[in-house]
Design brief:
Shape: elongated
Number of helices: 0
Largest sheet: 4 strands, antiparallel
């Protein structure tokens, strides 16, 4: 029975007019319940102009089998965090 589940994904974001002129400097993720801004698991990001490239493996082996939500949010150079964006997924212990 497989005990480790890896969610691998590539996120390419193009920011709209409201974020022009701002540099994103941090990113974080969390599962299901928000621990508070700046208290999630850190992510490495690469910023190129108005695009952010995030490539990572997120280990969710400590989650129970079943439905969950993965949330990601970003912080700009002024320390202002954006709203977390979530996506549902199902963890299967095959």
């Amino acid at each position: 029975m497989k005990t480790h589940v890896f969610i691998s994904f590539l996120i390419l974001l193009t920011w709209g007019m409201g974020l022009r002129g701002q540099m994103l400097t941090r990113a974080e993720y969390f599962f299901d319940t928000d621990p508070g801004t700046g208290k999630g698991f850190p992510l490495n990001i690469e910023v190129s102009g108005e695009q952010v490239l995030l490539t990572t493996n997120i280990i969710c082996s400590n989650l129970s089998e079943g439905h969950h939500h993965l949330f990601i949010r970003f912080c700009n150079e002024h320390g202002v965090w954006g709203q977390a964006q979530g996506r549902p997924f199902f963890k299967d212990n095959l």
